[in-house]
Design goal:
heterodimer; A: mainly alpha; two-stranded antiparallel ribbon; 71% helix; 1% strand; B: mainly alpha; 16 helices; 75% helix
């Protein structure tokens, strides 16, 4: 325990002073607002007039009288289910292929990482242009290739609009998934592969029996963080419907693109200023995020025997 | 055979990754009417005109705002994160474990939960409709603190600190003159991440700022449909100059950036 010896004589104020700026800033700019929002969620308040204390009524209303809340939650989860498996499978596959490249590894990685760092706002815009039924590039391409005769109403139909959003999510995050998997593969010691080779394991067998199990922790990390982020989806659907055509539309066709955070923002700042009710939505989502992240952790890390 | 398949697969996916960027840049070189005449795959010659249209607006102001916000966010978050990181990694004190867990718990609270409270607080402080709310939120960045704890632990040897202490160096002196230079790569990674995330932030400025002169790039971009109502080419040009510089910054620093972004995943 050399460490203890080294630092025995320094029971000073310094560590506290060093930690203070962060702790103070957290208390003022994050902890206080979180607490204050909870207090607000127990009130009926439009941001200007008097606050009326109504106990848990906002929460009761949210869960019993607001079908749109369930709809938005359903949309958010559907969009997650549509995109997450694709990103995991494609990301792993691409990482595996790129890992075994002799040349151009960094190039492939960098190119595919570009969408991840692009402002989501711009992505929403670009996609709403590309998938516009009349002038969009995608329809133009499909017609020219002769794959469809009539142009598709991508953004006007609940089902296809969800496909476009899921596509946006996959397009944006694929490079990230691939990079994380690639980093995990690099971290696997080479002698594990050599031992496998000695035992006569090759190619896909090695990948399935050695690489994939060793990457389990990374998959858990990706799934859990994606579930947390996915439940907070907002930028992409909002911008897909938020003004390329000049007129902002809430929720997309039949509210198929309305996510929980979009509903939260809309109810508290845009269509309405129900700060109390909005805070209740935020807290409800927070609880749902906790439940889902624990569930997804159990689901991904618990299956099979872990080493 | 197998090799060819791998190359085709990777090339196709990479092309799909690049296609929207390519279309964006190509379309910004056309006259609006020509965009719809066919597939915009070859460059036109109207780029300069489109750029002129874009810069007629308050685009420069918007850019300055965004840079101001991101640079301040980087400075603030890097300072507070590395200070608390150093304290937790290299000192033995009573609240050490508590603070360590505190950081991990704070990482899990989504910022949206406190959003309404934060806005009301900012209004009461008289900071509504300024750039302050979108800067100050970065002063306590839990991921940054977590990252710095790990980084200082891994890279700064105890012996160096102890030597400096014996030589009579003051505690702040140790931090600024000895620890800071040693953790430069970590600082660079964190700075890139914060720069990017604060640059791309959309929700917070959307609900705190409604004054045109305070717009940041994402808010500006989201209003393009209103600014250039019929001029699609100008919108594309604006979109291009709003995104391309960030992509270039990334390309220049892609190595540290990717290292930073994978650090949390591979270790954890």
């Amino acid at each position: 325990m050399r460490r203890g010896k080294l630092f025995r004589n320094q029971a000073t104020v310094w560590p506290y002073l060093f930690a203070l700026p962060f702790v103070l800033a957290y208390a003022v700019f994050q902890l206080f607002p979180v607490g204050y929002s909870f207090v607000l969620s127990l009130h009926d308040w439009n941001g200007i007039g008097e606050k009326t204390f109504i106990g848990l009524r906002n929460y009761v209303d949210l869960f019993t009288k607001d079908p749109l809340f369930y709809k938005s939650l359903f949309n958010t989860i559907i969009l997650m289910l549509m995109s997450l498996p694709v990103m995991i499978i494609l990301g792993l596959l691409m990482a595996y292929m790129t890992f075994n490249l002799l040349k151009g590894r960094r190039f492939v990685q960098t190119v595919n990482f570009l969408p991840y760092i692009t402002t989501p706002v711009a992505i929403g815009f670009l996609f709403s242009f590309m998938f516009d039924w009349q002038t969009g590039t995608v329809n133009e391409l499909l017609v020219r290739l002769g794959w469809t005769e009539e142009k598709i109403y991508w953004l006007q139909d609940p089902f296809t609009s969800r496909i476009v959003i899921a596509l946006m999510i996959v397009w944006r995050n694929l490079g990230y998934f691939m990079t994380i998997y690639l980093a995990g593969m690099t971290a696997i010691p080479q002698d594990v592969y050599e031992a496998a080779k000695m035992d006569g394991s090759t190619g896909f067998h090695t990948f399935r029996k050695i690489t994939m199990p060793l990457l389990r922790n990374i998959t858990v990390f990706l799934v859990v963080t994606s579930v947390i982020n996915g439940l907070q989806l907002f930028d992409e659907p909002k911008l897909l419907y938020g003004g390329w055509s000049g007129s902002a539309q809430v929720g997309g066709p039949e509210n198929a693109a309305l996510t929980v955070i979009w509903k939260f923002v809309d109810d508290s700042f845009i269509s309405n200023t129900q700060f109390g009710y909005g805070s209740a939505i935020a807290y409800a989502l927070f609880m749902i995020i906790i439940v889902f992240s624990i569930a997804s952790y159990r689901l991904t890390s618990g299956k099979g025997d872990r080493t | 055979m197998k090799k060819t398949f791998v190359w085709i697969f990777l090339t196709v996916i990479s092309l799909i990754s690049l296609l929207p960027f390519y279309l964006m840049i190509m379309m910004s070189t056309y006259v609006t009417e020509d965009i719809f005449k066919g597939l915009p795959f070859l460059p036109g010659d109207f780029l300069l005109e489109n750029l002129k249209t874009v810069f007629k607006g308050n685009f420069i102001q918007v850019y300055v705002n965004s840079i101001l916000v991101s640079v301040s966010a980087v400075v603030l978050s890097v300072i507070t994160s590395s200070l608390i990181g150093y304290a937790i990694a290299k000192f033995q004190f009573r609240l050490k474990n508590f603070l360590n867990y505190f950081i991990i718990v704070t990482m899990m609270v989504p910022t949206q939960v406190g959003l309404i409270g934060y806005i009301i607080e900012m209004r009461h402080l008289g900071l509504g409709n300024t750039l302050w709310p979108i800067i100050l939120i970065w002063m306590a960045f839990p991921f940054g603190a977590f990252f710095m704890v790990q980084f200082v632990k891994d890279t700064v040897p105890n012996e160096i600190i102890e030597c400096a202490r014996i030589d009579g160096c003051s505690e702040p002196g140790i931090f600024f003159r000895i620890v800071m230079p040693l953790i430069k790569p970590g600082l660079a990674t964190l700075a890139t991440l914060v720069f990017l995330w604060s640059w791309n932030n959309y929700l917070l400025p959307l609900v705190t700022i409604n004054n045109q002169s305070m717009f940041t790039v994402p808010i500006y971009v989201s209003n393009l449909g209103i600014v250039h109502r019929t001029d699609y080419a100008a919108r594309m040009a604006a979109l291009a100059i709003a995104t391309v510089p960030v992509l270039i910054v990334f390309l220049l620093g892609s190595r540290t950036f990717i290292k930073g972004i994978t650090a949390g995943a591979v270790k954890g």
